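Input chain follows. Return structure tokens only.
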Amino acid sequence: MFFLGHMAWAYVLAVVFAGKRWGKLFVPAVLMLGVLPDVDLFLGGFGVEHHTFTHSLFFWFVLFAPFLAVYRGKVIPYFVAVVQHFAFGDFIVGKVMLFWPFSFSYFGFNNAMMSVFDVALETLGLLLAAGIMYFNGDLRRLLSVDKRNVLMFFPFLALVTSMLFFAVDVPIVPLISHIWHSNVFATIVLAHIVLVVFLAVSTAQGLRRLSSGTLHFLE
């Protein structure tokens, strides 16, 4: 699954698990946790294979255990945000080493990325995330002039980096041509553009608040 789907479903499922009991979630952290297991993509030079230990339930339980002990239920939505990456997204779309280090077998349905099913699942996640953000007020807050929104730069950077990671070896002209001739490809590209613009605007609003505060201080 692309970072697009991981971020969207991380938000959707984290909000569902948070409910009304735990209040508002820190959205930049939720989005980043949704893609964090894929850090292994950038560790290939160190001998780390994709979909191995960073996609393990045990690995993340150990990392979250101290936070669960201190903050208890408040941490659960964030734990869900990271676990859904491989227990839901990559489990459905690919195969992961879900039970490492107790089992080195891969589990999952192994649906291909860029299949109709994958693109539909990612697009559905984006639409659900947008709808939930609108109705619970997160959309309005994330697009407001608020210094906290500057932290949306991190998911923005992660998403752009993932797009470059997948596109770096693809010639630009055939890529653009493929967009026009494939509804599936055009859909996933459009969905990425929507999310990139949203994250960029939110970040810009945060920077706008910081800059106005700095100017006010200098005056």
